[in-house]
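Before anything else, study the sequence and fold tokens given here and see whether the fold suits the sequence. Record follows:
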Amino acid sequence: MSAEQFVGRWKLVESENFEDYLKEVGVGLLLRKAACAAKPTLEIKVNGNKWHVNQLSTFKNTTLEFTLGVEFDETTPDGRQFKSTITIEDGKVVHVQKRIKDSDHDSVITRWFEGEKLITTLQSGSVISRRAYIRE
């Protein structure tokens, strides 16, 4: 798997169990509803080990910049803060979010390809959401 496969614009086309995931990680009702109604586009750029990911939607735009394998401070769109590390393992991009506050919940976000689709799973505890994107 080449990191270059991820480069481009990706439009959300399928979403399963996303609201349950957001509830599990502690996102409030109004923000959950808004996030579930949004149909985000991902813009991914890669330069060596440095990645730049924009998530664009009518709900909120976010930017995530990171270097593979290097821990960084991350603030989620709803304001939760994590120590995060993103690596490539077995052809998948694995994003581990470790909570800073005891009231937050750790998550693992994994991205890989199934045919032409970019699949993303978001897991916290026993709750797993699956989302699929297609290239624009």
Summary: The two ends are 20 Å apart (CA to CA). The mean pLDDT is 95. Residues 3-135 form a domain with the Lipocalin fold (CATH 2.40.128.20). The chain has one domain: 3-135.
